[in-house]
Specification:
The complex is a heterodimer of chains A (311) and B (135).
Chain A (H helix, E strand, L loop, with lengths): L4 H5 L9 H8 L1 H11 L4 H23 L10 E5 L5 H14 L8 E4 L1 H4 L7 H12 L3 E4 L15 H14 L5 E6 L1 H10 L1 H6 L2 E5 L4 H14 L3 E2 L1 H16 L5 H22 L7 H5 E2 L1 H5 L7 H8 L2
Parallel strand pairs in A: 1-4, 1-5, 2-3, 3-4, 6-7
Chain B lengths: L15 H13 L3 E7 L10 E2 L10 H15 L3 E8 L6 E9 L7 E8 L3 E8 L2 H5 L1
Antiparallel strand pairs in B: 1-2, 1-3, 3-4, 5-6
Helix pairs in contact in B: 1-2
The chains are: A alpha/beta (311), B alpha+beta (135).
Chain lengths: 311, 135
Protein backbone atom coordinates (compact mmCIF):
# COMPACT_ATOMS: atom_id res chain seq x y z
CA UNK A 1 0.00 0.00 0.00
CA UNK A 2 2.82 2.37 0.81
CA UNK A 3 4.24 2.55 -2.65
CA UNK A 4 1.04 3.64 -4.30
CA UNK A 5 1.90 7.06 -5.72
CA UNK A 6 -1.64 8.46 -5.44
CA UNK A 7 -1.78 7.97 -1.73
CA UNK A 8 0.59 10.84 -1.06
CA UNK A 9 -0.85 13.33 -3.52
CA UNK A 10 -4.32 13.24 -2.04
CA UNK A 11 -3.28 13.86 1.55
CA UNK A 12 -2.94 17.60 1.84
CA UNK A 13 -2.68 20.69 -0.32
CA UNK A 14 0.97 21.14 0.59
CA UNK A 15 2.12 18.01 -1.16
CA UNK A 16 1.45 19.13 -4.68
CA UNK A 17 2.05 22.50 -6.17
CA UNK A 18 0.81 24.29 -9.24
CA UNK A 19 4.09 25.42 -10.71
CA UNK A 20 2.55 27.94 -13.06
CA UNK A 21 0.61 29.58 -10.28
CA UNK A 22 3.68 29.65 -8.06
CA UNK A 23 5.79 31.24 -10.76
CA UNK A 24 3.15 33.84 -11.50
CA UNK A 25 2.66 34.64 -7.85
CA UNK A 26 6.36 35.30 -7.54
CA UNK A 27 6.21 37.52 -10.62
CA UNK A 28 9.06 35.73 -12.35
CA UNK A 29 7.13 34.82 -15.49
CA UNK A 30 6.58 38.53 -16.10
CA UNK A 31 10.12 39.51 -15.22
CA UNK A 32 11.65 36.78 -17.35
CA UNK A 33 9.43 37.69 -20.27
CA UNK A 34 10.43 41.31 -19.92
CA UNK A 35 14.06 40.25 -19.81
CA UNK A 36 13.51 38.23 -22.97
CA UNK A 37 11.84 41.07 -24.82
CA UNK A 38 13.83 44.09 -23.74
CA UNK A 39 17.28 42.60 -23.75
CA UNK A 40 18.49 41.60 -27.17
CA UNK A 41 20.87 38.67 -27.54
CA UNK A 42 22.79 37.73 -24.37
CA UNK A 43 21.73 34.10 -24.67
CA UNK A 44 24.09 32.67 -22.00
CA UNK A 45 23.10 35.42 -19.57
CA UNK A 46 19.40 34.81 -20.02
CA UNK A 47 19.88 31.07 -19.63
CA UNK A 48 21.73 31.56 -16.40
CA UNK A 49 19.21 34.05 -15.04
CA UNK A 50 16.43 31.61 -15.83
CA UNK A 51 18.28 28.78 -14.12
CA UNK A 52 18.78 30.86 -11.02
CA UNK A 53 15.14 31.92 -11.02
CA UNK A 54 14.05 28.28 -11.39
CA UNK A 55 16.30 27.16 -8.57
CA UNK A 56 14.92 29.87 -6.32
CA UNK A 57 11.36 28.95 -7.16
CA UNK A 58 11.92 25.24 -6.55
CA UNK A 59 13.82 26.03 -3.38
CA UNK A 60 10.87 28.01 -2.13
CA UNK A 61 8.42 25.23 -2.89
CA UNK A 62 10.72 22.65 -1.30
CA UNK A 63 10.76 24.75 1.83
CA UNK A 64 6.97 24.65 2.01
CA UNK A 65 6.91 20.93 1.34
CA UNK A 66 9.15 20.46 4.35
CA UNK A 67 12.10 19.15 2.35
CA UNK A 68 15.63 20.04 3.33
CA UNK A 69 16.53 23.38 1.84
CA UNK A 70 19.49 25.59 2.40
CA UNK A 71 19.46 29.20 1.29
CA UNK A 72 21.46 29.26 -1.93
CA UNK A 73 24.52 31.47 -2.25
CA UNK A 74 23.48 34.19 -4.62
CA UNK A 75 26.55 36.37 -4.94
CA UNK A 76 27.38 36.87 -8.59
CA UNK A 77 30.03 38.25 -10.82
CA UNK A 78 29.21 39.77 -14.19
CA UNK A 79 32.08 39.99 -16.63
CA UNK A 80 31.99 41.40 -20.11
CA UNK A 81 33.06 44.21 -22.35
CA UNK A 82 31.73 47.75 -21.92
CA UNK A 83 28.11 48.25 -22.85
CA UNK A 84 27.04 44.62 -22.77
CA UNK A 85 24.22 45.19 -20.29
CA UNK A 86 25.73 44.25 -16.94
CA UNK A 87 24.05 47.02 -14.97
CA UNK A 88 20.71 46.45 -16.66
CA UNK A 89 20.76 42.76 -15.83
CA UNK A 90 21.76 43.55 -12.23
CA UNK A 91 18.65 45.70 -11.87
CA UNK A 92 16.50 42.89 -13.28
CA UNK A 93 18.16 40.37 -11.03
CA UNK A 94 17.20 42.41 -7.98
CA UNK A 95 13.59 42.36 -9.13
CA UNK A 96 13.60 38.58 -9.60
CA UNK A 97 15.26 37.96 -6.25
CA UNK A 98 12.80 40.27 -4.56
CA UNK A 99 9.84 38.60 -6.25
CA UNK A 100 10.99 35.24 -4.94
CA UNK A 101 11.58 36.60 -1.48
CA UNK A 102 15.30 35.92 -1.41
CA UNK A 103 16.04 39.54 -0.78
CA UNK A 104 13.63 41.36 1.47
CA UNK A 105 13.53 44.87 -0.04
CA UNK A 106 14.86 44.58 -3.57
CA UNK A 107 16.76 47.86 -3.77
CA UNK A 108 19.95 48.05 -5.80
CA UNK A 109 22.84 50.07 -4.42
CA UNK A 110 25.31 50.71 -7.20
CA UNK A 111 28.80 51.63 -6.04
CA UNK A 112 32.36 51.91 -7.29
CA UNK A 113 35.70 51.99 -5.49
CA UNK A 114 35.22 55.61 -4.41
CA UNK A 115 32.12 54.75 -2.39
CA UNK A 116 33.80 51.95 -0.47
CA UNK A 117 37.40 52.95 0.02
CA UNK A 118 38.38 55.83 2.27
CA UNK A 119 41.03 58.49 1.92
CA UNK A 120 42.93 58.02 5.15
CA UNK A 121 43.52 55.44 7.85
CA UNK A 122 40.31 54.53 9.66
CA UNK A 123 38.09 56.00 6.99
CA UNK A 124 37.52 52.86 4.95
CA UNK A 125 35.78 50.61 7.46
CA UNK A 126 32.96 53.01 8.39
CA UNK A 127 32.51 53.96 4.75
CA UNK A 128 32.25 50.37 3.57
CA UNK A 129 29.95 49.48 6.46
CA UNK A 130 27.73 52.45 5.67
CA UNK A 131 27.26 51.20 2.13
CA UNK A 132 26.71 47.63 3.29
CA UNK A 133 24.04 48.78 5.74
CA UNK A 134 22.26 50.65 2.97
CA UNK A 135 22.38 47.57 0.75
CA UNK A 136 21.03 45.20 3.42
CA UNK A 137 17.91 43.49 2.21
CA UNK A 138 18.81 44.21 -1.38
CA UNK A 139 21.54 43.96 -3.95
CA UNK A 140 24.94 45.61 -3.74
CA UNK A 141 26.28 46.18 -7.24
CA UNK A 142 30.01 46.91 -7.32
CA UNK A 143 30.97 48.24 -10.72
CA UNK A 144 34.57 47.79 -11.88
CA UNK A 145 35.30 45.77 -8.78
CA UNK A 146 38.95 45.18 -9.71
CA UNK A 147 39.79 48.75 -8.73
CA UNK A 148 39.29 47.66 -5.12
CA UNK A 149 42.55 45.81 -5.35
CA UNK A 150 45.67 47.78 -6.23
CA UNK A 151 48.49 45.27 -6.61
CA UNK A 152 51.13 47.99 -6.97
CA UNK A 153 50.44 49.47 -3.53
CA UNK A 154 50.34 47.02 -0.68
CA UNK A 155 49.22 49.69 1.79
CA UNK A 156 46.22 50.56 -0.31
CA UNK A 157 43.00 50.85 1.70
CA UNK A 158 41.15 48.77 -0.88
CA UNK A 159 42.27 45.60 0.84
CA UNK A 160 40.47 46.67 4.00
CA UNK A 161 37.24 47.16 2.08
CA UNK A 162 37.68 43.74 0.49
CA UNK A 163 38.08 42.08 3.88
CA UNK A 164 34.93 43.70 5.28
CA UNK A 165 33.01 42.76 2.14
CA UNK A 166 34.13 39.15 2.31
CA UNK A 167 33.17 38.90 5.95
CA UNK A 168 29.65 40.23 5.36
CA UNK A 169 29.24 38.16 2.20
CA UNK A 170 29.96 35.07 4.23
CA UNK A 171 28.13 35.84 7.49
CA UNK A 172 25.06 37.63 6.22
CA UNK A 173 24.34 35.67 3.09
CA UNK A 174 20.60 35.86 3.64
CA UNK A 175 20.68 39.62 4.17
CA UNK A 176 22.25 40.83 0.96
CA UNK A 177 23.42 39.76 -2.46
CA UNK A 178 26.68 41.15 -3.81
CA UNK A 179 27.15 41.49 -7.56
CA UNK A 180 30.63 42.28 -8.84
CA UNK A 181 30.93 43.60 -12.36
CA UNK A 182 33.81 44.46 -14.61
CA UNK A 183 35.67 43.83 -17.79
CA UNK A 184 36.66 40.22 -18.43
CA UNK A 185 40.44 39.99 -18.15
CA UNK A 186 40.84 42.43 -15.31
CA UNK A 187 38.21 40.59 -13.29
CA UNK A 188 40.10 37.35 -13.87
CA UNK A 189 43.29 38.83 -12.47
CA UNK A 190 41.31 40.40 -9.62
CA UNK A 191 39.92 37.00 -8.66
CA UNK A 192 43.35 35.45 -9.03
CA UNK A 193 44.78 37.82 -6.43
CA UNK A 194 41.71 37.51 -4.14
CA UNK A 195 40.85 33.80 -4.11
CA UNK A 196 38.43 34.43 -1.24
CA UNK A 197 36.18 36.35 -3.57
CA UNK A 198 36.16 33.71 -6.26
CA UNK A 199 35.08 30.95 -3.94
CA UNK A 200 32.36 33.02 -2.28
CA UNK A 201 30.70 33.81 -5.58
CA UNK A 202 28.48 31.07 -6.88
CA UNK A 203 27.53 32.50 -10.23
CA UNK A 204 30.09 33.72 -12.70
CA UNK A 205 28.18 35.08 -15.66
CA UNK A 206 29.91 36.18 -18.83
CA UNK A 207 28.34 38.78 -21.06
CA UNK A 208 29.18 38.18 -24.71
CA UNK A 209 29.65 40.98 -27.24
CA UNK A 210 26.69 41.73 -29.45
CA UNK A 211 26.53 40.59 -33.04
CA UNK A 212 25.92 43.21 -35.73
CA UNK A 213 22.35 42.10 -36.30
CA UNK A 214 21.67 42.35 -32.56
CA UNK A 215 23.11 45.85 -32.43
CA UNK A 216 20.75 46.89 -35.20
CA UNK A 217 17.79 45.51 -33.30
CA UNK A 218 18.98 47.35 -30.20
CA UNK A 219 19.22 50.59 -32.16
CA UNK A 220 15.72 50.16 -33.52
CA UNK A 221 14.41 49.40 -30.04
CA UNK A 222 16.06 52.54 -28.69
CA UNK A 223 14.64 54.62 -31.51
CA UNK A 224 11.19 53.17 -30.99
CA UNK A 225 11.36 54.00 -27.28
CA UNK A 226 12.17 57.59 -28.21
CA UNK A 227 9.40 57.70 -30.86
CA UNK A 228 11.50 57.50 -34.00
CA UNK A 229 11.82 55.01 -36.82
CA UNK A 230 14.40 54.32 -39.48
CA UNK A 231 13.45 54.62 -43.11
CA UNK A 232 14.45 51.63 -45.23
CA UNK A 233 17.44 53.47 -46.67
CA UNK A 234 18.46 54.75 -43.25
CA UNK A 235 18.34 51.21 -41.94
CA UNK A 236 20.78 50.12 -44.60
CA UNK A 237 23.02 53.07 -43.80
CA UNK A 238 22.90 52.19 -40.12
CA UNK A 239 23.89 48.61 -40.87
CA UNK A 240 26.98 49.96 -42.60
CA UNK A 241 27.54 52.33 -39.69
CA UNK A 242 27.56 49.45 -37.20
CA UNK A 243 29.93 47.37 -39.30
CA UNK A 244 32.35 50.30 -39.52
CA UNK A 245 32.01 51.44 -35.93
CA UNK A 246 32.80 47.99 -34.58
CA UNK A 247 36.24 48.07 -36.16
CA UNK A 248 37.07 51.49 -34.74
CA UNK A 249 38.62 52.09 -31.32
CA UNK A 250 36.58 52.69 -28.14
CA UNK A 251 33.67 50.66 -29.37
CA UNK A 252 31.49 49.79 -26.40
CA UNK A 253 28.58 47.77 -27.75
CA UNK A 254 25.13 49.02 -26.80
CA UNK A 255 26.53 52.17 -25.20
CA UNK A 256 28.11 53.25 -28.49
CA UNK A 257 24.84 52.54 -30.22
CA UNK A 258 22.97 54.66 -27.71
CA UNK A 259 25.34 57.54 -28.30
CA UNK A 260 25.00 57.10 -32.05
CA UNK A 261 21.23 57.18 -31.73
CA UNK A 262 21.42 60.39 -29.73
CA UNK A 263 23.68 62.03 -32.29
CA UNK A 264 21.39 60.89 -35.12
CA UNK A 265 18.51 62.60 -33.36
CA UNK A 266 20.57 65.78 -33.20
CA UNK A 267 21.31 65.64 -36.91
CA UNK A 268 17.70 64.89 -37.77
CA UNK A 269 16.52 67.90 -35.76
CA UNK A 270 19.19 70.02 -37.40
CA UNK A 271 18.10 68.88 -40.86
CA UNK A 272 14.46 69.71 -40.12
CA UNK A 273 15.24 73.13 -38.69
CA UNK A 274 17.54 74.07 -41.57
CA UNK A 275 14.54 74.55 -43.83
CA UNK A 276 12.19 76.91 -42.03
CA UNK A 277 9.83 77.42 -44.96
CA UNK A 278 8.70 73.86 -44.91
CA UNK A 279 5.51 72.40 -43.43
CA UNK A 280 6.25 69.38 -41.30
CA UNK A 281 4.02 66.40 -40.79
CA UNK A 282 4.25 63.65 -38.20
CA UNK A 283 6.08 61.33 -40.57
CA UNK A 284 8.84 63.93 -40.99
CA UNK A 285 9.21 64.23 -37.26
CA UNK A 286 9.62 60.56 -36.59
CA UNK A 287 11.55 59.36 -39.63
CA UNK A 288 15.31 59.13 -39.66
CA UNK A 289 16.70 59.66 -43.14
CA UNK A 290 19.91 58.08 -44.45
CA UNK A 291 21.50 61.55 -44.53
CA UNK A 292 21.22 61.72 -40.72
CA UNK A 293 23.19 58.50 -40.41
CA UNK A 294 25.69 59.06 -43.19
CA UNK A 295 26.82 62.43 -41.83
CA UNK A 296 28.56 60.59 -38.99
CA UNK A 297 32.32 60.89 -38.55
CA UNK A 298 32.47 57.12 -38.57
CA UNK A 299 32.13 57.12 -42.35
CA UNK A 300 35.09 59.44 -42.74
CA UNK A 301 37.42 57.18 -40.81
CA UNK A 302 36.30 57.84 -37.23
CA UNK A 303 37.06 60.49 -34.64
CA UNK A 304 40.79 59.76 -34.65
CA UNK A 305 41.27 60.14 -38.38
CA UNK A 306 39.58 63.51 -38.31
CA UNK A 307 41.53 64.78 -35.37
CA UNK A 308 44.86 63.81 -36.91
CA UNK A 309 43.86 65.38 -40.23
CA UNK A 310 43.52 68.77 -38.56
CA UNK A 311 46.67 70.89 -38.60
CA UNK B 1 16.10 45.78 40.18
CA UNK B 2 15.04 45.84 36.55
CA UNK B 3 15.52 49.24 34.98
CA UNK B 4 12.34 50.47 33.32
CA UNK B 5 12.90 53.17 30.75
CA UNK B 6 11.36 53.77 27.35
CA UNK B 7 8.97 51.50 25.51
CA UNK B 8 8.44 47.83 26.35
CA UNK B 9 10.53 48.05 29.51
CA UNK B 10 7.89 46.42 31.71
CA UNK B 11 7.85 43.44 29.34
CA UNK B 12 10.43 40.70 29.33
CA UNK B 13 13.53 41.80 27.40
CA UNK B 14 12.99 41.82 23.65
CA UNK B 15 14.56 39.05 21.64
CA UNK B 16 16.71 39.94 18.63
CA UNK B 17 13.88 38.93 16.36
CA UNK B 18 11.51 41.31 18.14
CA UNK B 19 14.11 44.09 18.03
CA UNK B 20 14.50 43.53 14.29
CA UNK B 21 10.78 43.97 13.82
CA UNK B 22 10.69 47.15 15.86
CA UNK B 23 13.64 48.56 13.93
CA UNK B 24 12.01 47.63 10.64
CA UNK B 25 8.89 49.47 11.78
CA UNK B 26 10.98 52.59 12.42
CA UNK B 27 12.71 52.34 9.05
CA UNK B 28 9.44 51.79 7.21
CA UNK B 29 8.17 55.01 8.79
CA UNK B 30 11.28 56.82 7.62
CA UNK B 31 12.66 57.47 11.08
CA UNK B 32 16.39 57.70 11.73
CA UNK B 33 17.46 54.82 13.95
CA UNK B 34 20.11 55.49 16.59
CA UNK B 35 22.04 53.16 18.84
CA UNK B 36 23.01 54.75 22.14
CA UNK B 37 24.83 53.39 25.18
CA UNK B 38 25.64 54.52 28.68
CA UNK B 39 26.89 53.32 32.04
CA UNK B 40 24.80 55.95 33.81
CA UNK B 41 21.14 55.15 33.22
CA UNK B 42 19.88 57.82 35.66
CA UNK B 43 16.37 58.85 34.55
CA UNK B 44 17.54 62.45 34.20
CA UNK B 45 20.49 61.48 32.02
CA UNK B 46 18.82 62.19 28.71
CA UNK B 47 21.80 62.18 26.42
CA UNK B 48 23.48 58.83 26.07
CA UNK B 49 26.57 58.31 23.97
CA UNK B 50 25.92 57.44 20.36
CA UNK B 51 27.25 54.38 18.65
CA UNK B 52 28.15 55.73 15.23
CA UNK B 53 25.94 58.06 13.28
CA UNK B 54 22.15 57.96 13.08
CA UNK B 55 21.09 55.51 10.39
CA UNK B 56 18.55 57.32 8.29
CA UNK B 57 18.83 55.92 4.78
CA UNK B 58 18.61 52.22 5.46
CA UNK B 59 16.04 49.95 3.88
CA UNK B 60 16.39 46.91 6.04
CA UNK B 61 16.83 46.28 9.75
CA UNK B 62 19.72 43.88 9.14
CA UNK B 63 22.07 46.84 8.89
CA UNK B 64 21.04 48.15 12.30
CA UNK B 65 21.29 44.68 13.81
CA UNK B 66 24.83 44.41 12.46
CA UNK B 67 25.77 47.62 14.26
CA UNK B 68 23.95 46.52 17.41
CA UNK B 69 25.91 43.27 17.47
CA UNK B 70 29.12 45.28 17.16
CA UNK B 71 28.03 47.67 19.91
CA UNK B 72 27.12 44.79 22.22
CA UNK B 73 30.49 43.21 21.60
CA UNK B 74 32.25 46.38 22.76
CA UNK B 75 29.81 47.67 25.40
CA UNK B 76 28.03 44.51 26.48
CA UNK B 77 28.42 45.59 30.11
CA UNK B 78 26.42 48.80 29.64
CA UNK B 79 22.90 49.82 28.88
CA UNK B 80 22.18 50.09 25.16
CA UNK B 81 19.02 51.56 23.70
CA UNK B 82 17.66 52.04 20.22
CA UNK B 83 15.71 55.16 19.38
CA UNK B 84 13.86 56.28 16.29
CA UNK B 85 13.92 59.96 15.39
CA UNK B 86 11.13 61.33 13.22
CA UNK B 87 12.39 64.35 11.29
CA UNK B 88 9.08 65.12 9.59
CA UNK B 89 7.67 68.60 10.09
CA UNK B 90 5.64 68.95 13.26
CA UNK B 91 7.27 65.97 14.96
CA UNK B 92 11.00 66.56 14.84
CA UNK B 93 11.56 64.42 17.87
CA UNK B 94 12.20 60.91 19.10
CA UNK B 95 9.17 58.72 18.45
CA UNK B 96 10.35 55.49 20.00
CA UNK B 97 13.09 54.46 22.38
CA UNK B 98 13.67 51.09 23.95
CA UNK B 99 16.39 49.21 25.80
CA UNK B 100 18.14 46.44 23.92
CA UNK B 101 20.93 45.56 26.33
CA UNK B 102 21.39 45.51 30.10
CA UNK B 103 24.57 44.92 32.05
CA UNK B 104 24.72 41.67 34.03
CA UNK B 105 24.60 43.78 37.19
CA UNK B 106 21.77 46.27 36.88
CA UNK B 107 22.05 49.78 38.28
CA UNK B 108 20.07 50.46 41.48
CA UNK B 109 18.47 53.74 42.41
CA UNK B 110 17.10 55.07 45.63
CA UNK B 111 14.60 57.85 46.30
CA UNK B 112 15.81 60.29 48.95
CA UNK B 113 13.33 62.62 50.69
CA UNK B 114 14.46 65.87 52.19
CA UNK B 115 12.26 67.99 54.41
CA UNK B 116 12.67 71.67 53.79
CA UNK B 117 11.05 74.80 55.16
CA UNK B 118 7.31 74.68 55.70
CA UNK B 119 7.30 70.86 55.74
CA UNK B 120 7.73 70.84 51.99
CA UNK B 121 9.48 67.78 50.64
CA UNK B 122 12.19 67.56 47.98
CA UNK B 123 12.87 64.30 46.23
CA UNK B 124 16.17 63.18 44.76
CA UNK B 125 16.95 60.01 42.89
CA UNK B 126 20.40 58.80 43.72
CA UNK B 127 22.25 55.80 42.45
CA UNK B 128 23.26 53.28 45.05
CA UNK B 129 26.94 52.38 44.99
CA UNK B 130 27.74 49.14 43.25
CA UNK B 131 28.66 47.36 46.49
CA UNK B 132 25.17 47.97 47.86
CA UNK B 133 23.59 46.96 44.63
CA UNK B 134 25.03 43.48 44.82
CA UNK B 135 23.47 42.70 48.18
Amino acid sequence: MLDVPHATTAESSETNFDLRKEAEAAGITDTLQQLEQELIGLRPVKNRVRQIASLLLIERIRQRAGLASSPPTLHMSFTGNPGTGKTTVALRMAKILHGLGFVRRGQVISVTRDDLVGQYIGHTAPKTKEILKKAMGGVLFIDEAYYLHRPDNERDYGQEAIEILLQVMENQREDLVVVLAGYGERMTSFFASNPGFRSRIAHHIEFPDYAEAELLVIAELMLRERGYRLSAAAREAFEKYIALRRTQPFFSNARSIRNAVDRIRLRQADRLVSDLNRLLDVADLETIDPADVLASRVFSGGADAQRSAKP
Amino acid sequence: MKLTQGCFSFLPDLTDEQITKQVQYCLTNGWAVNIEFTDDPHPRNTYWEMWGLPMFDLQDAAGVMMELAECRRVYGDRYIRISGFDSSHGWESVRISFLVNRPPQEAEFELVRQEVGGRAIRYTTIRKPAAHASS
